[in-house]
Amino acid sequence: MKKVITYGTFDLLHWGHINLLKRAKELGDYLVVAISSDDFNEIKNKKAYHSYENRKMILEAIRYVDEVIPENSWDQKVTDVQDHNIDIFVMGDDWKGKFDFLKDHCEVIYLPRTIGISTTQIKKDLFNVQNG
Length: 132
Ligand code: C2G
What we know:
The structure is a single chain. The protein has helices at residues 15-26, 38-43, 52-60, 77-83, 119-131, and strands at 3-8, 30-36, 67-71, 88-92, 107-111. By secondary structure, it is α/β, with parallel strands linked by helices. The longest helix has 13 residues, at 119-131. The protein is globular. The model has no long low-confidence stretch (mean pLDDT 97).
């Protein structure tokens, strides 16, 4: 069984996230998603609209996702890959090159980001609608 892992905040879930999760799952048989905790989001300077628990519940409802684990720090990826017997690490290519150190432990694949959608864009558009 080929196991895949990916990481992210996945706030205000949108079709760009789904595209990523779908392609990640297609690379193997089992997809683990490490979702950023609220504390880790602070470290990433990200303020998620949905709490960790609710973002986790949403991800667990996605057909491409087999397991959701917490992401609490930048330094857990090697142990995650080892502990979960991961074969492939996947991220959107805005992270290209940033996680190449994992190549000692598993395959590293950066997938093209989906153009035209982002959580930041959603927030901006909603703000503008509200404020004319
Ligand atoms: N993504 C994408 N296309 C978009 C938006 C996001 O392919 N239009 C991908 C990102 O490249 C990432 C995943 O969806 O692989 C999750 O995106 P975020 O929730 O923004 O994740 P991020 O904050 O980049 O967290 O340790 C890694 C970090 O936790 C990654």
